[in-house]
Amino acid sequence: MNEAIMNQMKNDDLVLKVDNLTVSFKTPSGLVRAVRGVSFDLKRNETLCIVGESGSGKSVTGRTIMGILAGNAIIDDGHVYYKDLDLCQAKEEDFYKLRGSKIGMIFQDPLSSLNPIMKVGKQLTEALILKNKMTKAEAKERAIELMKEVGIPEPEKRYNQYPFQFSGGMRQRIVIAIALSMEPEILICDEPTTALDVTIQAQILELINKLKREKNLSIIFITHDLGVVANMADRIAVMYAGKIVEYGNSEEVFYDPRHPYTWALMESMPAMNQKGKLNAIPGTPPNMLMPPKGDAFAARNKYAMKIDFEKEPPFFKVTDTHYAA
Ligand code: ADP
Ligand code: MG
Description:
Blueprint: H1 3-11, E1 14-27, E2 30-43, E3 47-51, H2 58-66, E4 73-82, E5 85-86, H3 92-98, E6 103-106, H4 120-132, H5 136-149, H6 155-158, H7 168-181, E7 186-190, H8 198-215, E8 218-223, H9 226-232, E9 235-240, E10 243-249, H10 250-255, H11 260-267, E11 316-319, E12 322-324
Parallel strand pairs: 3-8, 3-9, 6-7, 7-8
Antiparallel strand pairs: 1-2, 1-4, 4-5, 9-10, 10-12, 11-12
Bound molecules: adenosine-5'-diphosphate (ADP) and magnesium ion.
């Protein structure tokens, strides 16, 4: 890797650096341009929230970092730096070593990460034995400890149950425990609470925040929900149509948003809207088979100027830590 980049990562205490990531998918109708030049840093022990509407490229970004893209994906350009590796160019076996160990990922549907016909205790101990070469008895002890850490009541009894015997929230706790069993440095959370009731959602968010503190995790938290962002983010990247349109500290983006898309997202938030009337963002996201010229949000932006339909807006600096297109 480029020595200058390695030094910068060390100096700024970055655990990950994503640079100009560009990913598309081959489909029968043509190339879907899912991620179009995304760049961001992840600092040690921070939560960076990636927020945006459905289809904006959040999951593809997370999956590219994790190395679990669909078979029809093409990484057209860009880098994902982790330590001295460029994950976009890493050999399959390097990625294999990282996946689930240094970098863990949890998803919206915990069932997709669990084996339905294996007791949850065994799913935990398998991960532990794989990672630590523990004996079965040691692994069981550690598994029960982990179940306690993620807030599973009566872990000794729950150890011998199957995933279907757990509620959605408890299943997500198990998935988090399995991810933690590998002692990751980075945790990518892709809408982990979207499928849960609001009260359960709040408990899982609280758990992730607690684990971040206790285990010094660096977290990429993907969500479409600004309410969740408010509870989680140290920094925020707002994504629209495969690009980051605004990037800054949590307070900067919430209290001094600069991109019209960020304004629209805020106005569509129930708690942010004093009139009690919900303003859905008018129009629909663009077709990523043919992303529009210029600013992709222009067609939905009442403040758009003629030039926005022709030329891509530059990224300008609001403060040293806050940027917007
Ligand atoms: P988000 O997570 O922000 O809702 P995604 O990252 O899942 O959005 O998707 C970004 C774009 O990539 C969407 O237009 C989606 O339809 C497309 N996409 C994702 N996966 C595939 C795939 N395997 N094949 C074709 N298109 C895909
Ligand atoms: Mg998604």
